[in-house]
Structure formats: structure tokens, C-alpha cells
Amino acid sequence: MNTDTILSPKKYSEKFKKSIVSMYLRGRNGKRLRDKYFIPKNTFYYWIEKYKKIHSQDGVIITKHDYKKLQWENVRMQKQLEAYRVTGCSPQSTDEDKLVAVDKYRSLYSIKYLCDVLNINRTKFYRYIAHEETKTERRTKRLICMIKDIAAKNPCYGSKRICHELKRQGYVTSYKTVSHLMQDNDIQAVIGQKPPRQNRNTLNDNILKWQKKYALSAPDIAWLSAITEIKLFGTKFYICSIEDIFSRYAISYTILPTNDSALVANTFMDAYTKRNPPYGLIFHSDNGANFTATAIRALLKSYGIRQSFSRIATPQDNGHMESFFATLKKEELYRKTYHSPEDFFQSVKEYIEYYNNSRLHSRLGYKTPKEVLDEYDEKHK
Q1: 113 lies in the same domain as 159
Q2: What Cα–Cα distance (Å) separates residue 249 from each residue in 161, 192, 271, 296, 324?
Q3: For residue 83, what are the CA distances in angstroms to 95, 112, 239, 247, 255?
Q4: Residue 232: helix, strand or coil by DSSP?
Q5: How many CA atoms lie within 13 A of 366 on its CB side?
Q6: In this structure, are 90 and 124 located in the same domain?
Q7: DSSP state of 52
Q8: Domain that includes residue 169, residue range
Q9: Claim to verify: residue 38 and residue 149 sit in the same structural domain
Q10: Using alpha carbons only, what angle is made at residue 363 by residues 359 and 367, rounded to the nearest 5 degrees?
Q11: Is 367 helix (H, G, I), strand (E, B) or coil?
Q12: Looking at residue 4, what is its pLDDT?
């Protein structure tokens, strides 16, 4: 090392101190070093004692300064582990949790000790205990409780539906606020796997396509129907459902272990009995053999029903029903484990009642299908 390049600093750096000690230990005269760099005698020999190399207990050669530093860090680590064990905190705990822990255990340990080992600024802690809950904080706490309550009752609701449910309860807030609070409090919508989407193909007697705007103007102008299957207990169960396109109200459904014309006929007759639709109703479905069967076509024709079909391999043409079954599976069927067929039947029944009467529908302006029907009936009395 070129000693001529070393200047005498007013505040000695660690590098400078170690350089002086290194030169002394290599044989340089101590008095000459002190005189050259204007180092007080006591300070000089303090550095020698501090930075000379020693053998640690593990046989590693380190400086006395480093050894004491390791001892101090070891003691601090033990204190931290003790504090974490007593308070229940961890290095990943939030500052809020740590502040609560310091406040709770300050009768057992000093505030300085707890703040030091939990890595919390003492000034921040004193501000915390002197802090009075603001109006905004009280509002946020109340909002979180309401969100948790809605999510518990409607586990498949996302931030938008929860936001609209809050509005119905008289509490107005934004989607973004609800979304952030759900993320911060680990509140998530519980849904199953989304069904795969199929490809498009050719057109086939799609009456609804040309009269959809008219069908959306009032109930019982067009009904939608489809069939889905679910395998339970080694058996395939087929669910046929009929929905009113105007209100998205699930009018009727049937569950059978066989996928035949009787499945559609039973569902239609039940729906017809409940709603008694006007002559000329459009009945839209896919091109499945159940709906194109001669017996079904004759049955519908006898009631003055006009059949409409989606294009082959194009579920988008009957997208509302596909969406209904996807929602049924994600929010109900794929979320539960059934112990008997009766348990499965009851679950479907309860969900459809919930879907019609309680579940907010985004395409209906976050109203329920029942509310849309009631509003229409009220306007046209």
C-alpha cells in the first residue's frame, strides 16, 4: 500500500483504521505512524486492539471488532426469536400487527426493547398509541365487515356484485375500493373451473338471431333451453333447463339419468304450466337429438311454439344458457362434494332458487331475475 496517498481525515474511516493497523502489524514504527497521520496515542493503540486478528472459538481468524459484532448480532437474534415467540409475530408480520404486539406486551418488556427486536420505529409506536380512530378508518372497518358478510352469504360474488349489493343496502362505494379491500383481507370469489369453449360452424334455422331485440322487450317472448351433464357416483346425470331470455329467470328444470326426449318434454310441460306463454313463443335450443326429435317438435307445434336452433357446434348462439350452466357448475356443482343423489338434487334446487331470487345478474343491471319480472308486471298492470 502506498502510504503517501493516505491523508489525515478528521473522521477516520474503517478502511483508514484497518490500513494503519495493517502497516503497524507488518513492522512499521508506531510513533512514526502516529506522527505522520496525527493520530492520538490512545486512539492508535485502541485501533490496534480492536482490529488485530484473533482466533474465534470455531478456529476462524477474524478481527476482535468483527468477533464482538458477531456476538452482538447473535444476542440480538436470540432476543428477536424470544420476542417473536412471545408476541406471536414473525419477520413477515405487518407493521400494524407488530404495533399491536408492542402495545400488548409493553408491561412485560420495555418499549425500547420490543421496538428494537421487532424492527419498529419507536416514534411510530408512540404515534400509534396516541392515535384516535378517524372517521375514514371507522368507515373502512364497517365496509370490510359488510363485504365479509356479503361474501359469506354469496361466496361466488366478485367485487362488482358485492359493490352493487352494498348499494342495495344503502352503502355506496366504488368497484376499485371493494376490490382493494377484498385483496387486502384475502376475500376471494369461490368458483369452479370454466367449461371449455367450442368452435363456430354453420347456420341452421336460427329464428332468435333475427328477433332477439324483440325477444328482449318482454317476458315469455322467447325461451332458451339446453342440456348439460355431470357425472356423480359412477352415473351421468343430465340437467335440462328452460330460461326466459328477457328476465334470465330459470323457469323450470329436470334432472334424469337418461338423456332422451322425455327429459325435454317434462321440462317444457312444467315451464308451460307455470308461465302459460302466449301463442307464437320462440323456443331456442341447440341441434341436439333431444330437441330435434320428431316427438318434441310435434309437442311444441301443438302448443303453437316456434322452434329456433343454434348453428351446429356454435354454443355462442345459445350463450345465455351456456352461461347459466357454466355459472351453475362454477358456483355450485364444482364447489361441493355430494354424498348421495338426493344431496345433489337438493343442491341444484336450492341454487336455482338462489339464482332466481337473490343472485345479482350483471346483464340485468345487477338486479335479480325475479326483480326484473316483478318490475315488468308492476309497469304493465
Answers
A1: no
A2: 18, 22, 11, 23, 10
A3: 15, 12, 58, 60, 60
A4: strand
A5: 12
A6: yes
A7: S
A8: 135-184
A9: no
A10: 40
A11: strand
A12: 43
**Cβ proximity of 204 and 311 under 8 Å:** yes
Residues, the chain, total? Answer: 381
The answer to whether 331 and 351 are in contact (CB under 8 A) is: yes
Per-residue cell: 137: 378508518
HSE-CB at 237 with a 13 A cutoff on CA atoms is 17
Q: What does the alpha-carbon distance between residue 105 and residue 111 come to, in Å, rounded to a whole number?
A: 9
pLDDT at 351: 93
180 neighbors 147 (Cβ within 8 angstroms): no
The x, y and z cell numbers of residue 186, run together, are 384475502
Asked if residue 349 and residue 275 are part of one domain, the reply reads: yes
Do 211 and 178 lie in one domain? The reply is no
Which residues have CB under 8 Å from 253's CB, separation 6+? 239, 240, 241, 242, 267, 348, 352
pLDDT tens readout for residues 8-62: 445 778 788 878 877 877 777 877 888 888 888 888 877 777 766 654 455 455 5
151 and 99 in a common domain: no
What's the pTM value of the predicted model, to 2 decimals?
A: 0.56
Are 374 and 226 in the same domain?
yes
Residue appearing with cell numbers 336455482:
352
pLDDT < 50 regions, the chain: 1-9, 55-56, 59, 198-203
Does residue 115 lie within any of the structural domains? yes
Residue 198, in any domain of the structure: no
| Contact (Cβ atoms closer than 8 angstroms) between residue 258 and residue 197 | no
CB contact burial 145-159 (16+ within 10 A = b; e otherwise): ebbeebbeebebbbb
From 148, 135, 139, select the one nearest 182 (Cα to Cα).
148
C-alpha cell, 308: 329456433
Q: Are residues 41 and 98 in the same domain?
A: no
Q: Which of 115, 130, 145 is the last residue of a domain?
A: 130
Q: What is the pLDDT of residue 238?
A: 94
Residue written as grid cell 311444441: 300
Structural domain contains residue 249: yes
Single-letter amino acid, residue 279: Y
Taking the alpha carbons at both ends of the chain, their separation in whole angstroms is 102
